[in-house]
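Protein 1 of 2
SEQ + STRUCT:
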Amino acid sequence: MEGAAASLQLQCMAPIPNRWVMMNNNNNCATTSPNMLRMKMMRQRRRRSQRSSVVKCSGSGSGSGGGIGGGIGDFIGGDLVKLDLGRWLSDVEEHKALAIYSPHEGGYEGRYLNRLIYQGYYFLDLSARGLGDPETTLINIHPVCPAHVGKQPIARWYFPPEVDYRLSLLPPNAKGLVVWIIEAKVLSKSELQFLALLPTLRPNVRVIAECGNWRKFMWKPLKEVAALTGNQDAA
């Protein structure tokens, strides 16, 4: 045994060309090339730089200089920091039709949508692209032409009004129906004016239209966006 240990020690001490001699945990010899050592050192250096780097997300710094720095809203959600959910509910009940502007990254509007669900509202989600004439689609019987793919005769199917059909299916304990329009920025002014007047035609309906994006979640009356307030004041 002593002879084997001495020979192993001599082998470890023997020079090995173009190799590095390393001792592992079991005190045995291990050889590796300089390229492998270099790659290992680069990985360790990369891990240290990743641990030491600090990502600053918020654009409004807390210091007096107004520099860029992370805020509490970057960690628990900006919609949770702003205590405006009560004002959101009161504005929905007061104006009945709102135009909202959410951040580009999305996600904030879900907090306000859930508050309306807690109040007992049911939702009709529609996209402004492909909606057609909002008045015809929402409160009138409207035709729809299915795709014929060039092989079938052109047909026309008639569908019931989207809003009236959903209102007829609401349970007795429902507070109302919220028509949530996404991509409403593509609608014309006359179409936005109809959406602003829809709660007047259907009292149990509330309208939320996504009219654009902003750095923070904000909203305003849809009548103001559709330029209906000025006409009413003049009248």
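Protein 2 of 2
SEQ + STRUCT:
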Amino acid sequence: AVGLAVGHPMDTVKVRLQTQSTYKGIFDCVVRTYKHEGCHGFFKGMAFPVLTVAICNSVVFGSYSNALDFLTQSQRRERDQGNKASLWAVFTAGCFSGLVQVVLKVLVLAPVDLVKVRLQNQTASRGGARYRGPMHCVAVIVREDGARGLFRGAWAVALRDVPCYGLYFLPYEFTCRMLTETGKQPSSYAVLMAGGIAGVVTWAFATPMDVVKARLQMSGAGGRVYRGTLHCITASLREEGIRVFFKGLLLNSLRAFPVNAVTFLSYEMIIRYMTVSPTGCSQD
């Protein structure tokens, strides 16, 4: 939750750049947001994600751990003692965790991300704002679009998360092994570097579909109207060129390194604390 709070201002700027064409770039978006909305403008839409981020992370790491145990037919302690999991198994287990995450998001948490994006894009003053808060935003969406409206962009989320969670754990595992001597536990430095690199690599691949997801979520709410995922991709490409799919990449990378470095370090420390014997690099 702390990492989310620290990274949310950059996420707000990223979402606005992806869904609005009124900004010249990152600096222009930051200046105009602060000028018209103050510091509060950078934290719009943060309430719901803060309440659900712990659930999301526990599902991702838990499903990854169990999938890797199944694929390697071994436990974490055995792999720490030298029987390393193959990188293919790591990638496959990561994809499985992405699939589980997608099911959770589509069935339960899709409205949370939708509300976040809608509130982040709200630039009007409080008196003229379309949404008065998260719950009012949900009520307006249901009233205008029905319950299905809460799940806009769900297919884009699936196309983004399933393969990208495979990539999420793969560079982490590879980097962690490269920075750790054989037979030794990885240092905090190794875990932080591996986690940060994993976050940057993942978002480099995820950003194109992240742009599509954000645009679909704003469709019909002040943004351009799209008929679906494929229409959004083709229309965006035709109107703005290939560069449109990389809007927010720099911000995603700057935010991803510290947030994911801390996430993986926290994960490793908790796992080591909960096991009887010291554990090594994240193998589950």
